[in-house]
Amino acid sequence: MSQPQAAAAPVTQFDNFEHGFPAGFGPGGWGHLAYAIGIAFAAFQIVIAAWNVLPSQVVRGVHVGFLILMTFGLVANFTAKSNAGRALGWFIGGIGFLCGLYQWIFYADLILRDGDPTTLDLVVGTVLAVLIFEGTRRLMGLALPLMCGACIVYWFFGQYLPAPFNHRGYAFDQIITHLSYGTEGFYGVPIYVSATYIFLFIMFGSFLERAGMIQLFTDVSLGLFGRTRGGPAKVAVIASGLMGTISGSGVANVVTVGQFTIPLMIRFGYRRAFAAGVEATASMGGQIMPPVMGAVAFIMAETLGVDYSVIVKAAVIPAVLYFASAFWMVHLEAGKNGLVGMARSEIPNAWKALVDRWFLVLPLAALVYMLFEGFTPLYAGIIGLSLTVTLILGASIVLGLPSRTLRYMFWIGLALIAGALSRNGLHIVPVSCVIAGLVVLSLLTRGGRATLVACRDSLAESSKSALAVGMACAIVGTIIGMMTQTGVGTVFGGWVIGLGAKSLFLALIMTMLLSILLGTGIPTIPTYIITASLAAPALAKLGVPLIVSHMFAFYYGIMADLSPPVALAALAAAPIAKENPDKIGWEAMRIALAGYVIPFIAVYSPSLMLQAGDPMAAELGFYGAVAYSTVKALVAIGLFGMVAIGYLFARMTPAERIIAFVAALCLLGEFQYSDWVGYALALALLAWQWRQRSRSAAAAT
pTM (2 decimals)? Predict the structure, then answer.
């Protein structure tokens, strides 16, 4: 086994491990232990995804067991000061693994005695709850455990509160049974999604990154936009958007793509805070960019009971608009400060990059195709992963062949085999046989053996990357379990509905503030789950399409990662830019200003998310309404960009920025003729700015 990187005195960028551990798996034998368990975890997930050999409840239990084991073990590896401390961490993690295994060992018995737990059941359930809370605290800090802990306290003592906050009261055994067994607590929908889709897509992204996808995205972005005005910042936006299609993690995008783009922007004249803010804004957009969407898309699909492709289709136009708004912001900033693009000699050829590495796009294209054709995300993910591994291994084997003719023959032969296997549909057994054959061939070449080691490293790294998401999905089951048993969610929903009866806009503002407030302290996934559980059903009762209401909650949970005082994306960008995180956070909010309004536009124009119920559909038809709402959104974000930057063709006065702001609000409004007022003001401002540009040019000459 290859040596995992050691880390005797680890240092992280945050006060917890929510957005990643240091490189490697820990010092000495402890690192080897974590590495081996990571591979075992990944292997278990692949087997489950490919063959579905265990009941769902067992899969969830073992998945949670692995999460607890690796969380306590890795945290101890990187923080304990002695071997005794590391041994204690792994021992506690081992107890957690046995708690998860308990679901497998006593699977039939637990079904038979559902609602009548034994003493051992209650002990195991209680220990599981304690370890999930403590593991999440060690991994992410106090915010999420405290919030879930408050739900536990309410669950136990809520009967003593005055109406309408009280509930009928529940005994200890009822709470533990509901929380630690069944499918409405720790083992609810979020952990089911984590144990199936999320882990698989994290692995998919990890293998694509290992294959060189980041470099391909960067080269294509540089080739297309590097020479344009303010080109380096536009490269950051496009590269992060492309990277978001496979990573789904905003902070991961910052620390990967940002290592290149932030210094590049600074070198070409952008202020440090602005450069880091651009990368933070663009990177957080990766969570709303299909097909991965920060794993929330999978949870949303399961929660709403719709096909995954429905969620992806709803997210496409808003995601493109988000990145268009960021692109527009950096274009205006470059014009305002006279920033130029890169020299031709400094940028690669985009077409050549695609020609040289076109095969890297195939797995992503196949994944998107299968999702839109109605295949399950699990099936699409395992086939996409298989195709990625096939390409990686095939490329390493080809490098060992002595002539170009043999290389062409190899790829043609592999394509013919794949075509023969797919004539009657792709099945996992023959696909596995092809991969096994490639593994054997790879063992015969030096480059092939190195590639196999890299693939093995990707398996272990995937397990490591899945911990934060998985533990968040587990602990947030506390909130779901409490709400399903006590019904307290209806109280908050009643408030939103009551407020919305007077003004839907105020109900949306309340939901937005709730999402941002929660998101400043906890990760995006639990923020979405909590807000969607509380507010989304209420918004749906006010006439907002259900998918739009869930997307609304999701978007502002993401925006919280750009909002000070926490602004995790800004924290990740700060050491790269060598700038204060708060300054970066405020710049990121300014750059993302246009993005903040997209969900509001979607509420009043549901066709923006390809949903029925748009008022314009009666006049223009469904696709006409889609086109109209998209154009209106583009104009609105264009106006908000002018407000934020203070520039279009020339520097804008405060009065011009106020007019732009009023015009943008009119396009968001719902009163009679509001759109036409907004368009009229926008055209007048456009003409005035063009005139100012002509005057400035004349004065310069």
Answer: 0.75
